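Two records follow; treat each independently.
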Amino acid sequence: MRPFLYDVHRLFEENAELLNLFQKFQDLKTKESQRESMELAQHASLVMSTLDEAINSLDDVDHFIEYLHSVGRMHVKVKGFKREYFWKIEQPFLLAVKETLDERYTDNIEVIYKITVKFILQTLVDGYDSACTSSEMPNGNASVDNNPAASSSNAENNCE
């Protein structure tokens, strides 16, 4: 398993409340079942892809902001999701960067990645907050993760 993917798995292992947000992950009670879950691996890969897309789009700030705002807005529809959950990926991400870069990891690189991940996460939070202050929820009444409990009518509770 690639280091970052492993660290995203660790994120879910250490924060069971995140797994409980998704109906398909609620039965993954042990670390072993979490490591063996292809669906969880796919979700971890999606998290990684989101961060990768954000970093790769830093040269086009308009795309960067719109992309991350849309991802942030989508999370309003996940029943029980809280804006502070975005920040839980910060340390696993920074650890993965350090492990991946190994001897190329310097103090300067650390500062750059800390600033970058904070900018990414704050932009996600801003998107989430914009959905909370908007009168229209993202994507109508569609539910997230095929979980009827995650419909937009329930999503408003996340904004309190």
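The next record belongs to a different protein.
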Amino acid sequence: MFLIRYAGVENTLRLFGSNSDEGRQAISRSDLYVHDLQTKKSLLLFSSLYSQFQQKLEERGLFESTNLVVISGHGLRSVDSEEQFYIEECLADFSKITKIVNSHSMMMVFTDPDELDEVFFELKVCDQWAPMGDYDEGDNPLVSVYRTSELPEKFHWKSSRFMPGIIIMTRPGATVLTRELPSIPAGDEHARDIRQTGGWDNDNVEMRGVFMARGPAFKTNHESLPINMVDVYQVLLNILGVEPPHRHNGSWANVEDLLSSGWESRTSPDSISSSTSTARSFLCLILLCMLSY
């Protein structure tokens, strides 16, 4: 098994957006790279390292039996330039914030324990993202401010010892930034200029990533229902003939239908015949960091 991480799509879409010439070119290039992987052409992106690997597979008659998986962690969405906010405009005293982690779609706000309630109140009632005009109470607010203990269960964050006391989440398209507060990653004067980003609520369809696969383990011309990122781990182990060494959060029922006959029932290396185990254990995983819908 080997993993190739390609960030060209993510970086370009963040800077230029998916409707730009640069964005379309980046997506076309990634399509070409994946196509070349499957048609045995020379692959400039991965230089001679891939060529040597491909040659060794072909020499051993393993190229056609190698499974190729292309995956992205999540999708990207365009940023609404009219819905960008700075957290400083909500605060009377910046010294009450010890640090900020992340920005844009979600922000973690760390404070001294004694200051948490006051900072939470200031953020909760902040005028800059308060509902205005013909606001429908059924609409999602532009910005939601949570005590970590009150976060929705679906995020699986509220009991983490690494979380701060306050979490800010924005509606898809809206972003929250910092100019002056200590932050991780460090604040960037160009942060307001990004065209697309991710990290919003994963129930939003635009946050869905990509999962594409071909090879002996997978059905052909098959379109699956959406799967969860935690489901992928068990698919890879199944292809390699490895039993999961520990409990995980994936659901086999979500991915079983992806696999071709015989592969969906493989539960241990013992179920693979010795004559085919080597030929079927190769797996190429390409991580296209993020793709845009």
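Discussion point: The CA atoms of residues 42 and 48 lie 9 Å apart. How would you locate this feature using only the token line?
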